[in-house]
């Protein structure tokens, strides 16, 4: 399939503040997310392990969901009903986000929350085609089209004009749907010890997660076996330590962006100082035809 991504990145930015109408379209998962993030891609268990191996252990964070009523199994933690299976809270792992100055769709520079890996200057992904490039990102927007779900490309076209989705035939080979029947241990994980999560659920809801909180969920997901509730304790221990010890350019840049947040003199070009001097890989920029195949 073919998409025109120049000046877009609508799938990597929380562009709700400049959208014509309120939307929960890309707040994905099983029920209502406990966090307020938009466009957070679900990582597969193998994506998580690759992220850990290549030094991005501090780039990941969990998402849990809350549900009301009796249609869903839930477990109560920190006075919230968390979606669960067999008494185990369910969650996904996504990428951390931070506000950066960006100019999507040809708009004026503005602070919007984006994926940590988005280069705000070129609006390209810093890990595109690298081993850590998430399966869900590689399958976008084909996976949405195959499931008959509106894509961010179409939503951006409707809001800002232009032709984003050039060829809308989804590829024949796509990974399993992140929240479908095969999701357990693939993109949805079950935490076996809910009592350990006391306090963490409140911090996640309040956007105050600690490194240890992230390590708890990422580590458990890395040790999860696909299709079952089985956990490999040695893999969990190793992954948890890796998250605690990792300090990549992503984590350092998040802190630096937070210190600058809202500064009206900041521009997308600041990424050279904030991200690239801390080790972020450069992106290629746009030349010639902006369309590319996904
Ligand atoms: S990893 Fe890259 S493509 Fe995926 S959401 Fe982040 S910036 Fe976008």
Structure notes:
The protein is of the alpha+beta class and 294 residues long. The protein has one domain. The protein is 25% helix and 18% strand. The protein has nine helices and 13 strands. It has helices at 45-53, 135-138, 142-146, 152-160, 200-205, 211-222, 233-245, 249-260, 271-274, and strands spanning 2-4, 32-33, 60-66, 74-77, 80-85, 88-95, 97-102, 110-115, 118-119, 124-125, 165-167, 189-190, 291-293. Strands 2, 3, 4, 5, 6 and 12 form a six-stranded antiparallel β-sheet that branches. The chain has a three-stranded antiparallel β-sheet with strand order 11-1-13. Helix 6 (211-222) runs antiparallel to helix 7 (233-245). The chain starts with a strand and ends with a strand. Bound molecules: iron/sulfur cluster. Residues 12, 41, 95, 115, 117-118, 125, 127, 134, 137 line the site of iron/sulfur cluster (SF4).
- Number of spatially distinct domains: 1
User: What would the principal axes of the Cα set say about the shape?
Assistant: globular
Q: Kindly provide the radius of gyration, computed on alpha-carbon positions and rounded to a whole number of angstroms.
A: 19 Å
| Portion of residues within helices | 25-40%
Distance between the termini: 6 Å
The largest sheet is: 6 strands, antiparallel
The hetero molecules present are: iron/sulfur cluster
Q: Strand fraction band?
A: 15-25%
User: Average pLDDT across residues?
Assistant: 94
Succession of helices and strands: EEHEEEEEEEEHHHEEHHHHHE
What structural class results from the helix and strand content?
Answer: alpha+beta
Query: What ranges have pLDDT less than 50 throughout 5 or more consecutive residues?
Result: none
* Beta strands, count: 13
How many helices does DSSP assign?
Answer: 9
